[in-house]
Amino acid sequence: MRMDILDIPIDCLSQAEALQKIASFLKEKDRFHVTTPNPEIILEAQKNPIFKKILKEADLSIPDGTGIVWATKVLHNKKIKRVTGVDLTRAICRTMKNSIFLLGASEEVNLKTRQVLEKKYPEIKIVGNYSGTPGANLEKIICSMINKSKAQILFVAYGAPNQELWIARNLPHLTTVKVALGIGGSFDFISGLRKRAPRWMQHLGLEWLFRLIIQPSRFKRIFRATIIFPLKVWQKKISQAFKKS
Q1: Which of 13, 76, 160, 214 has the fewest other C-beta atoms within 10 Å?
Q2: Does the pTM of the predicted model rise above 0.90?
Q3: What does the pLDDT look like over 140-174, one tens digit per residue?
Q4: How confident is residue 214, by pLDDT bands cut at 50, 70 and 90?
């Protein structure tokens, strides 16, 4: 089931259902783009028409963020489960035997992510990894690397909206990739170079507080996600109520 949050589609799937969907994509001849919208991404899309178009056209859009779960309840009276990009990335690496390419993050984080994944999942098939940049100057080189690797799954960790823009521009030129996923800062967490909030904070939807404590520089981003985004959602809710009356 797909629902709109501030005009951005969200697929209301569990992690297991998302994995099933991705597995079905891998059997098709087409190429598929998977996005991981959170409140920051949805707010960015409101002022970035190109980014918004890409999100609206995504083949799978998972609910990454407790704010998305809350907004779905407010706007659609639908209770869904959060599926984070990092958890989905780990699940794909754990359960799928397809060839994988890791793109993005810093050189240190990118390499460390590959090492951690290969140690944790001995059967994983990582056929290439590269830090690179989301700029257009390296696109041909990066696409050539990915094509030579014959990767079927591409994880792109350039952060939004750069990663989504990169995938939209380059997925048509990737000859073997079946599924490309924009996964934000997932490599930072998988590599262990950045800590995730304790599970009890994740369950209570307080990951934002943990990030604020360990990264005060994220204040503006967290403010937008925890204050501006809810205000926008309530404005949308009120607008819907007036239209119905």
Answers
A1: 214
A2: yes
A3: 999 999 999 999 999 999 999 999 999 999 999 99
A4: low
Query: In CATH, what number is assigned to the domain containing residue 54?
Result: 3.40.50
Q: Which two tokens stand for residue 7?
A: 């005009």
Give, to the nearest 10 degrees, the angle between helix 162-170 and helix 139-149. Answer: 70
* Mean of all residue pLDDT scores within the chain: 91
Tokens of 227: 């204050």
Separation between Cα atoms, residue 199 and residue 231, nearest integer Å: 27
Is residue 238 a part of any domain in this protein? Answer: no
| Closest to 162 in 3D by CA, of 135, 189, 140 | 135
Q: Hey, what are 226's tokens?
A: 């925890």
Q: Which of 209, 36, 83 is CA-nearest to residue 45?
A: 36
Query: Can you give 175-203 as a three-state secondary structure string?
Result: CCCCEEEECCCHHHHHCCCCCCCCHHHHH
Q: What average pLDDT does the segment 184-190 reach?
A: 94
Q: Which two tokens stand for residue 46?
A: 């409101």
φ and ψ at residue 102, rounded to 5 degrees: -105, 120
**How high is the pLDDT of residue 210?**
55
Rounded CA-CA distance 94/48 in Å is 35
DSSP 3-state assignment of 150? Answer: coil
Strand partners, 181: 34, 155
236 assigned to some structural domain: no
